[in-house]
Amino acid sequence: MSRKCKKSCIFIRLKLLYICMQKKNFLKNYRCLIDFLGIIQIFVVLLFLLDSCSSTPKKEKVSIPEPQWITDKKGVFPDSEYLAQLGTGANAAEARNNSIAQLASYFNTNVKSLVQGETYTYNTQNDESKTERTIKSSVVTYTDLDLFALETAEPYYLIREQKWYCCAYINRKTAWNQYEPYVRDAKNKFYSIFSLAQKTQEPLERIKIYSQAEFASEEFLGCLYRAYMFSKPFTDQAFGDDRAVVASIPGYVQKEKNNCIMCAAVENDMGGIISSTINKIFSGMDFTMSDNLEKAYYTVDIRIDYGRLTEDDLVIYFPSVKVSIKSKEKTLYVYENKLDRIMHYNESKAQKDALDGIAALLEKELAADFKTSMGLSE
C-alpha cells in the first residue's frame, strides 16, 4: 500500500474517533468504529490491487524465427545423412502431408531409375566371346512403399508468401537399420529356391527352378534398391555378394541350355518340314540341336496324326500334333494341338497342306508355351 493511502486511512480513523468521543455511548460506538475501519481497510487494499493489475505492462508477442530448412534444406539435412523434401499448404496439416508426399515421390522416382538401369551379361553357346545385355523390368511395388524412420519438422507459416511450410526427412542410417531385416527375409527366400536348383540333376528341371529363383530374386532386388536409397555403402557391404549371385542366374540358365542337347524325332514327316521347324524353334531359344539321337540328352518326339478319312475320291484330313520332350527316364514337357479339316483330291498334296499348317502352328505357339512351362523369360 502506498504512503498516500496509509495517511488517508490514519486521518479517517482519527476523525471518526474524535466524533465518537463527543457522544455519551463512547465504548459502544468505538467497537462499531473498529469494525467499520476494518472494512474500509479491506476495500482500500482491493482498490490498490486492482490498480496494480491494471497498471501492469503487457507482454510483447514472441516471434518465431524462420527455420533455416526453408531456404537451405541441404544445409540442415545434408544428402549424405538425410533424405528430405519440402511441402507447402494452406494450413500446417496440409503442409506436413504434402512434404511426406513429396518425399515418397522422390523416393519412388529414384528407386525406379535404379531398377530400369539394371543390367547383366552372360555368354551364349554359339559364341563364347559374345555377351547378352538385358534391361530388367521394374520389380518394385510403389503403392505399398513404407517410409522408414520418417520424421517431419514443425510446420512454419511464412508471412511473406502467406502459406505454411513443412519438411519431411529420413535419417539414412536409422532407416537402413530398420529396413535391413526385410532385405534379409527376401534374401533367404531367394536362396531357398536357388539352392534347390543347384541340387537338381536334370538340366531342364534345373532351368525351371532357376527361373523360379529368378522370379523370387525380383522381391529381393526390390528390397535392395530401397536399401540403396537409404545407404548404398551399407547395402553393398551386407548384400554385395548376394547381389552378384542374383546377377549370375541367366548365366546358370544358359549353361544348362548348353547341356540340353536335343534331337528331333518325327514320324510321318514329309521332306523334313516338321523336324526343321522344331530345330529352328529350339535353336531360337538358345538350345543346342543335334541330328544324332545317341549324342542328345533329350529327344523331341513329334507325333503327327493326319486323322485321314476318304469320301469317294476326296481325301479328308483332321491333322493333330503332339510334341514331347523326353529324357531316358521321363517326359518333361508335352504340347498338343490340332488343325481344322483339310480336303483334297490328291493324297500327297493333302499331306503337304497338313504339314505346312502344323509347322505354322508350331512356329506360332510352341516357343511361347515351352517358355511358360519352363518359367523362361521372353
Describe the model.
It is a single chain. With 378 residues, the chain is an alpha+beta fold. It folds into 3 domains: 1-30; 68-258, no CATH class; 260-374, Double Stranded RNA Binding Domain. The protein contains 9 helices and 13 strands. The strands form 4 sheets. Strands 1, 4, 5 and 6 form a 4-stranded antiparallel β-sheet that branches. A 4-stranded mixed β-sheet has the order 7-8-11-12, covered by helices on one side. It has a 3-stranded antiparallel β-sheet with strand order 9-10-13, covered by helices on one side. Strand 11 and strand 12 (331-338) form a beta hairpin. Helix 5 packs antiparallel against helix 6 and helix 6 (203-230) runs antiparallel to helix 7 (232-259). The radius of gyration is 45 Å and the shape is elongated.
- How would you describe the shape? elongated
> Would you report the number of β strands?
13
Q: Provide the helix percentage.
A: 40-55%
Oligomer: single chain
Question: Which stretches are poorly predicted, pLDDT < 50 over at least 5 residues?
Answer: 53-61, 120-144
Rounded to the nearest angstrom, the distance between the terminal CA atoms is 98 Å
Q: Indicate the proportion of strand residues.
A: 15-25%
Q: DSSP helix count?
A: 9
Secondary-structure element sequence?
A: HHHEHEEEEEHHHEHEEEEEEH
Structure classification? alpha+beta
Number of domains: 3
User: Roughly how many Å is the radius of gyration?
Assistant: 45 Å
Largest pleated sheet: 4 strands, antiparallel
- Average pLDDT confidence is 80
